[in-house]
Design brief:
By secondary structure, this protein is an alpha/beta fold. The structure holds 1-O-phosphono-alpha-D-glucopyranose and zinc ion (ZN). Residues 1-16 have a biased composition (Polar residues).
């Protein structure tokens, strides 16, 4: 039986950078998840009889919302639902399943790298038929609908056993529980030279992958250990846990500190990597060298032709605006297009669909390609391993050679988390008001060349996205960017992105914060960060 349930709208269901993210208790309010899911369906057209993919990163409340989503999809007339076993699908694997099975779209339950647990974060996002995050046109429609919704539809049915693969029927809708790993592992085998990587591992190359008790564990185990022959134990923390073992599943130098320390030791493995809660981010560390995500994008783009899936070369590269300009010089050398988009993977979708770009990346540890429409943590790890297997050099050597050839972009992001929203908004508003006055002014010996509020004109659908971050560009190529996070769930997070280009190889060995010290001071001087936020130092430096 299909029930039509009366409900009252919530006013706070506006999707952010990557779907709707709130604390679990917010999602546990009466009909909160139901309202949002129905708002998604109400914003879509012509899906009757089509396929919907449902999966999540396994965090607390995942299993409950999976059951709700299945029953609502059935009640709303989808023909088939594909759900990952255990309710598990990493974000890139979900994107792949949507594409491979020609689904209408997918619902991914995740709050990415945010902590999980009864009082931590949960999230719901909708991906469209190309496998990528819904564009703003759809997320705006979902938000508009959520403000007026008065009923939702749900099948009055028993829960599906999502822990065993198999097929069920609810109200004429076929529900299939699928292996969450198989399709993804197959795709990786097509893209990369598994034989070369296997031979490298067999030759004693040591890899360590920290799944951070999040969703990539089963994927990394299957691919790295079972298919590529890395020794058992190479994948750490491989069991997805609802609370990620109490950790913050964000693969950066703060939250994956132990891996970093291990990789800096004399007897470190050759290659260390990690991924986040939902498997779309990556951390790459060679023995004795952390590769910044911006550098990793540039280096992967410069070497991608060494992997079978990219042997024909790249059509272009895209990066989010705050990501360093390192990839720009690779694109220039390759003679291919370079695109600068706002923060958030959704802005890459059109460029990928139109084949304007093959590889994309963000400074926030996101790298990916046209193989899916999400960033992909394990993909980045496997492309690095493929490059290492072919070049037979260490990560450190590859990085040094790259800097020598292209110059080095010293780069760091300073986050001020959970600051007062009014103070953060005031800081940005004040900068915005002063943009016209800044050019020509000198701070600590550096002259502002240009200052603007980044706006993106999508070359494919011609849409315009404004207010995407304050950019202050200095003569000589240094840059400071200020923007507020669109993924936080409490207060505001101010992100300050600091970058300096250093062409001289003799100066490529400076510690990053030292190399950027003058710009860090200038950022505070221009924006009065300390005064406005009341913080002496950033909460996280990456
Ligand atoms: C952050 C990152 C951004 C990424 C997003 C989703 O968004 O900065 O690059 O796409 O998470 O993983 P923000 O909180 O800055 O809006
Ligand atoms: Zn993520």
């Amino acid at each position: 039986m299909i029930k039509t349930v009366s409900t009252t709208p919530y006013s706070d269901q506006k999707p952010g950078t990557s779907g709707l993210r709130k604390k679990v208790p917010v999602f546990q309010q009466e009909n909160y998840a139901e309202n949002f899911i129905q708002s998604i369906f109400d914003s879509l057209e012509d899906f009757a009889g089509q396929t919907l993919v449902i999966g999540g990163d396994g965090r607390y409340y995942n299993r409950e919302v999976i059951q709700i989503a299945i029953k609502m999809a059935a009640a709303n007339g989808f023909g088939q639902v594909l759900v990952g076993r255990g309710g598990i699908l990493s974000t890139p694997a979900a994107s792949n399943v949507i594409r491979k099975h020609k689904a209408f779209g997918g619902i991914i339950l995740s709050a990415s790298h945010n902590p999980g647990g009864p009082t931590e974060d949960f999230g719901i996002k909708y991906n469209i038929g190309n496998g990528g995050p819904a564009p703003e046109k759809i997320t705006d429609a979902i938000f508009a609908r959520s403000k007026v919704i008065d009923t939702y539809k749900i099948a009055d049915a028993a829960d599906i056993n999502i822990d065993i693969e198999g097929t069920h029927t609810i109200e004429g809708t076929k529900i299939t529980v699928i292996d969450p790993v198989a399709d993804y592992a197959e795709l990786m085998e097509e893209l990369f030279d598994f034989a070369a990587i296997r031979a490298m591992f067999a030759g004693g190359f040591r890899v360590v992958f920290d799944a951070m008790s999040a969703v990539t564990g089963p994927y990394a185990k299957e691919i790295l250990e079972n298919r590529l022959g890395a020794p058992k134990g190479s994948v750490l923390n491989f069991m997805p846990l609802p609370d990620f073992g109490g950790h913050h599943p964000d693969p950066n130098l703060v939250h994956a500190r132990a891996l970093y320390e291990a990789m800096m030791a004399d007897d470190a493995p050759d290659f260390g990597a990690a991924s986040d809660g939902d498997g779309d981010r990556n951390l790459i560390i060679g023995r004795g060298i952390f590769v910044t995500p911006s550098d990793s994008l540039a280096m992967l783009a410069a070497n991608a032709h060494l992997a079978p899936g990219y042997s024909k070369g790249l059509s272009g590269i895209a990066r989010s605006m705050p990501t360093s300009g390192a990839a720009d010089r690779v694109a220039e050398k390759l003679g291919i297009g370079m695109y600068e988009t706002p923060t958030g993977w959704k802005f890459f979708g059109n460029l990928l669909d139109a084949d304007k770009v093959t590889i994309c990346g963000e400074e926030s540890a996101g790298t990916g390609s046209n193989h899916v429409r999400e960033k992909d943590g394990l993909w980045a790890v496997l492309l690095w391993l493929n490059v290492l297997a072919v070049r037979k050099e260490s990560v450190l050597d590859i990085v040094r050679e790259h800097w020598a050839a292209y110059g080095r972009n010293y780069y760091s992001r300073h986050d001020y988390e959970e600051v007062d929203s009014a103070a953060a908004n005031g800081l940005i508003a004040d900068l915005r008001a002063r943009l016209a006055d800044l050019p020509g002014k000198t701070f600590g010996g550096l002259t502002v060349e240009k200052a603007d509020d980044f706006a993106y004109h999508d070359p494919i659908d011609k849409s315009v996205s404004e207010h995407q971050g304050i950019r202050i560009l200095f003569a000589g190529g240094s840059r400071i960017v200020f923007r507020l996070s669109g993924t936080g769930t409490s207060g505001a997070t101010l992100r300050v992105y600091i970058e300096r280009f250093e062409p001289d190889a003799a100066r490529h060995d400076i510690e990053t914060q030292t190399a950027l010290a003058d710009l860090i001071a200038i950022a505070d001087e221009i924006a009065d960060i300390k005064g406005r936020t009341g913080r002496d130092a950033p909460s996280v430096i990456t």
